[in-house]
Amino acid sequence: MTKNLRVKTGKAIDETYRISFKFNGSTYYGFKGDTLASALLANDIHLVGRSFKYHRPRGIMTAGSEEPNAIVQLHNDSSRTEPNVRATEIEIYEGLEASSQNCWPSVKFDIGGINNLLSPLLPAGFYYKTFMWPASFWEKYEYFIRRSAGLGKSPTTPDPDIYEHKYIHCDVLVIGAGISGIMAAKIAAKNGLKTLLIEEKPNLGGSTIYQNSDHFKINNQNSGSWLEKEINEIKKLKNLEIKTRTSVAAYHGYNFLLARENLTDHLPINQRKDKTRHKLLKIRAKKVITATGSIERPMIFDNNDRPGILLSSAIKRFADYFGVACGEKNILFTNNDSAYETAISLIQKGINIEAIIDNREEVNSKLIYEVEKNNIKIFKGYTVTDTSGYKRINKISIMQLSKDGQKVVGSKIILSCDCLGVSGGWTPAVHLFTQSGGKLKFREDDQVFIPNIYPSDQLSIGACNGDFTLDEILVNTPKSLIDYLNIKNTEYDNLEISSSTNKSKRNIWLLPSDKILGKTKSFVDYQNDATAKDIKLALREGFRSIEHVKRYTTTGMGTDQGKLGNMHALGIISETAGAKMGELGTTTFRPPYTPLTFGTIVGRNVGEYFDIFRKTPIHDWHVEHKAEFENVGQWKRAWYYPKENENMHKAVQRESKAARESAGILDASTLGKIDIQGTDASEFLNRVYTNAWSKLAVGKCRYGLMLNEDGMVYDDGVTTRLGENHYIMTTTTGGAANVMGKLEDYLQTEWPELDVYLTSVTDHFATLSVCGPNSKKIVSEVIPDLDFSDESFPHMSFKNTKIGKINCRVMRISFTGEHSYEINVQANYGKSVWEKCMEAGKNFNITPYGTETMHLLRAEKGFIIVGQDTDATMTPIDLQMDWIVSKKKYDFIGKRSLYRSDTIREDRKQLVGLLTDNPNEVLEEGAQIVADINKSPIEMLGHVTSSYYSPNLKKSIALGVVRGGKNMMGQKLIIPMEKKNINVTVADTVFLDKENKRLNA
Amino acid sequence: MFIINCPYCGEREQSEFKAGGEAHIVRPKQPTELSDDEWAEYLFMRKNIKGIQFERWNHTHGCRKWFNMVRDTSNDEIKAVYKMGEKPPVE
Questions:
Q1: Has domain A666-857 been given CATH number 3.30.310.50?
Q2: Is-contact A363 A334, C-beta < 8 A?
Q3: For residue A205, is it left (φ>0), alpha (ψ between -120 and 50) or beta?
Q4: Residue A748: half-sphere exposure toward Cβ, Cα within 13 Å
Q5: Which residues of B have a CB under 8 Å from any CB of A?
Q6: Residues sharing a CB contact under 8 Å with residue A728, sequence separation 6 or more, in sequence order
């Protein structure tokens, strides 16, 4: 039977509303408002998980998002299970199931715990040092390391929950609703500014809201009651929006912030259906006020990680807020006054305190006086040197500190306890400030980093700015807001404040022990098991940069990002290396502040919305006719149309034969189309293409090749002169947007004097290409009024015509080498014209073909595909396309680069045809080409770029780039494959119909 | 993410824009007259400084106009934006 450690009704919980939940398979009860942590503690459960490296038992350490130890696996099902959830953040709900992570077979008996015994053998950098050699063994090591490493399990099936993104624009964003954030939000909103207040916890008020002691008064009220009234007032303000359970994850430049709003995680499972789980808020704020508070520091001593050791402030929060005692025999260990605030809270609630250990020798303040009045023993000038208790702390050893704090003196005292609260002072939560690019400065008095230089329009106030005491916050917050918001005064300018805190502190980063350091385990990073010893080892091994020490020891690299221990790591490095803290700097704080699920980041962009895709106007027809699709850029293109039992090879062979023997039809709507108009249109084309355009007659088409300024082939396509000052350019499917951008760039920046206007019309037209010996018969049936004779409508010419009432442009151009026509109609008519062609072609076995057949047909003709046969290193000369490069034109883009010392080299890789000695052997695209297989190392001459089995030539054909290939015609080369070497002969790039007879067949 | 003040459209999110490298590099009027070294200077050599840099930007998902920007690359502060053809501001 577990104990009930609920002491008194807490502020946050509703004792009339009981909730059952499961932890590690057992059922427990808590109340509405409890976190998993507070509910477990109320059931006297401290052992929650195991540490990452040594598998040491670990318990709840904090009461907030900084928790390093109490991280659990939530839910059991494969789609919603979630690892690394902080027990201190999750609010319990009916149906909650959580389990410990990082332990097997159970948290109480964990086999990995053997690492703890082996720990002398597992120093910092152990994995780096040990598994480096022999290199070939890495795969074997990895198998075992992977099995024992990792935190928690990720889901294995898709996340069924709904996530959303939302943009928010505001005048002022206030991050953190503690006392200073609430004051700031109220002042901003009351001054007419549209204000957003964000708080990560479910309730407003921070730590002041449960402050109920006579030692802290504002206008003669307890500070907690005073703040409660303020909260009630701000909830009524019109231009103030308040979001709780919302964590700011990232603070980017230009005041752009990302926050995660948690909408359903606290609800009973059966109330979550169809609701958005998380919202990712994308916030653009004119002004940002950071009031993120501070995080209490632990203390670094031997065995400081046992279950039952908590931050003193967490013990106070559990008692005041949730009405939970963390133990029955509590001891507090501190170097400052905050632990006495905890003590007073515990005394008020009748929770037993055995003793207080205080590093300081001379201490006096009203708080301490009150604690002493209650007959609690205070060991002044003492330190904890060790603890014991495997699954729960049961004893501590304490010794007196030497005057300089470097040693312990005197004899050891053993005290028994079941809970130890530690307070090493406070660290401002400057994570978001530094993420935004802010620069910190080090304050020597109390050894903290505070904001110094703001990179954008922002302000830090309260504890995150180094104001830890109530009077500092109440005095400084209104003052800095008057300046920052440029206002005359605030309602808080004349508050009556009484606060008993004394600011004295005795900061010792690594507390001394009677043992030598090598025999201690003083944890600095609890989650990653990095100890003070590890950090000192890293320094001995020569690491100096804080960023290097971090990576070598893994300090601060857990899911908690070292929120607790980073300052101690810095302190220890500073002391050991003799460097000043301010000069050492901090490690980089990276977003997110607390982990985000992928669902939140992705939002609604899942499944078919992950990346948009474009469909041609004829897409539905392809779907109806069972086409397989290929992604080309964002387009879905019909790849091939398998008939029953056909695989891709068989379908492509059939389609290719039909196109050459009778007729084929291709949906070419994806080709980029740019409408070019203006009196200088011809001159413009002259400058962007390698060949000449001035003399192209109206109604004629011409193939053009476009280079980059470095002389490398960029794009190609056919451009048609529609009128005197009017052209339509086609580009490759994938290159359309880039070509448009490049042409606009030149027009706007280099040649603004040209009278040329560009319009992208890719989506405006459906384009279908009918090819093959029977293409003329089919197209003339679809367009009966047009004269299709070779005299009137020769190859490379264009006609404006109509199909019924539909305007249409017909080009007689060919990418297959067959007699063919390209029909362009307004996009909405694409499918009906396609169907007309299919109908007219019925008697000619017109065969729809996809991109794969198109690639095969053009390869038979040796036509290149930019991006497949070329990469960004091929000039037209390399492609053996010298014929398209004008010698007469004075200039065009890339011309000068064609005779740079590098581009005129004879031994550049050049495009050639390749024929296999065995005509049935089809090469693999991408395969390497070599000449001498016996040479070591083998010299790579190039690679295969296109390769197919041609049903029309009844043999295998390929294109490839080969160093100096132009002069290797007829030469034998070798394609070395995994299992065999394939012999090939260098051939012409044109395999079929070199005389172009078929164009007019 | 920056807020960029497009000289034609006003303030917009950075995601609407595309960066286009160093500004004020003029394409030579007579490339054929240049030596390999001179052409390479135009073609390849670009500055990449920590500090004030002059850059070309394009409002790709807006007016599609190219314009120039003066940006401090050390803190991403945009000092000025101005249209193509206009003289860079002197500080």
A1: no
A2: no
A3: left
A4: 20
A5: 1-3, 18, 20, 26-27, 30-32, 34, 36, 39-40, 43, 56, 58, 60, 64-66, 75-76, 84-85
A6: A673, A674, A675, A676, A719, A720, A722, A761, A809
Using a 10 angstrom Cβ sphere, with 0-12 exposed, 13-18 middle and 19 or more buried, the burial of residue A135 is exposed
Q: A921 with A626: CB under 8 angstroms?
A: no
Alpha-carbon distance of A134 to A137, in angstroms, equals: 6
| pLDDT for position A244 | 98
CATH fold group of domain A858-1000: Gyrase A; domain 2 (3.30.1360)
Torsion of CA A620, A622, A625, A627, to 10 degrees: -130
Facing B43 at nearest CB: one of A252, A709, A750: A709
Q: In what order do the strands lie in the sheet with A419-423?
A: A309-311, A419-423, A330-334, A353-358, A377-380
DSSP states of A538-556 as a string? HHHTT--SHHHHHHHHTTT
- Give the architecture-level CATH label for domain A1-155: Roll (3.10)
Domain regions of chain A by residue span: 1-155, 164-291+469-499, 296-425+506-584, 666-857, 858-1000
Place of tokens 């000043």: A580
Say what the pLDDT of residue A1 is.
Answer: 41
Q: Residue A941: its pLDDT value, please?
A: 97
Residue A842: phi, psi to the nearest 5? -50, -50
Spatial neighbors of A510 by CB under 8 A, at least 6 apart, are A300, A522, A532, A568, A571, A572, A575
Nearest-by-Cβ selection for B65 from A748, A750, A895: A748
**8 A C-beta contact, residue A791 and residue A784:** no
Which residues are registered as beta bridge partners of A442?
Answer: A449
Low-confidence ranges of chain A (pLDDT < 70): 1-2, 102-115, 117-151
SS3 content of chain B, % helix, strand, coil (to 5): 15, 35, 45
Per residue in B12-39, pLDDT (tens digit) is: 999 999 999 999 999 999 999 999 999 9
Cβ neighbors of A282 (< 8 A, separation 6 or more) are A165, A166, A167, A168, A256, A257, A258
- Of A93, A460, A143, nearest in space to A264 by CA: A93
* pLDDT tens column, A679-722: 999 999 999 999 999 999 999 999 999 999 999 999 999 999 99
For an interface test with B, which of A255, A748, A904 has the most B Cβ atoms less than 10 Å from its Cβ?
Answer: A748
CATH class of this structure's domain A164-291+469-499: alpha beta
Q: Is the ipTM value over 0.85, yes or no? A: yes
Fold match flag (A164-291+469-499 vs A296-425+506-584): yes
DSSP string, A295-364: EE-----TTTT-TTEEEHHHHHHHHHHH-B-S-SSEEEEESSTHHHHHHHHHHHTT--EEEEEES-SS--
The alpha-carbon gap from B84 to the nearest alpha carbon of chain A, in Å, equals 7
What's the half-sphere exposure (Cβ side, CA atoms, 13 Å) at A252? 13
Dump pLDDT digits (tens) for A5-59. Answer: 888 777 789 999 999 999 999 999 999 999 999 999 999 999 998 887 788 899 9
- Phi, psi at A790, each rounded to 5°: -60, -30
Residues of A in contact with B56 (CB under 8 A): 749
Residue B46 · residue B21 · CB < 8 Å: yes
CATH of domain B3-83: 3.30.2270.10
Closest-CA distance, B28 to chain A, in angstroms, reads: 10
CB A677 within 8 A of CB A855: no
Kind and range of the H or E run holding A477: helix A470-484
The pLDDT mean for chain B works out to 95
* CB neighbour burial string for A27-51, b if at least 16 within 10 angstroms, e if fewer: ebebbbbbbbbbbbbbbbbbbbbbb
Query: What is the distance between the alpha carbons of residues A492 and A757, in angstroms, rounded to a whole number?
Result: 63
